[in-house]
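[Q] Does anyone have a clean structure-token version of this?
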Amino acid sequence: MVEFIFLNKDSFIIVGCLFIILGLTLIVITEKISQIKTFIIGFIAFCSGIILLGSLITVGLFSKEYTALEITELKPNLKKEELMKFDIRFLESVLNELREKKLKEIQEKKEMEIQEIINQ
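[A] Here you go.
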């Protein structure tokens, strides 16, 4: 389940937001009691969106496997099974270090491009 959420996290965000927007729209346009079906459909859509985004947030914050998958995405030569042996705090610190290194590499690359432009 965690791998499914990790691999489809962009879809979870998009579909969850769409369900929330659709649900709120249907709830807001319901003015009369006779439109109870529209209200119920809107409420169900809203709750479904909340559940999708909530599951993504919950898994992202509290799952060691999700953090290990993020690390292996940034550093593919590490094995997820070996990373699962470590504590979640350690994995989060490794993930933060990898993110910082990636940001520094991007920043250095931009600086090199700027220097090349200036030198030309």
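[Q] Thanks! Anything notable?
[A] The mean pLDDT is 86.
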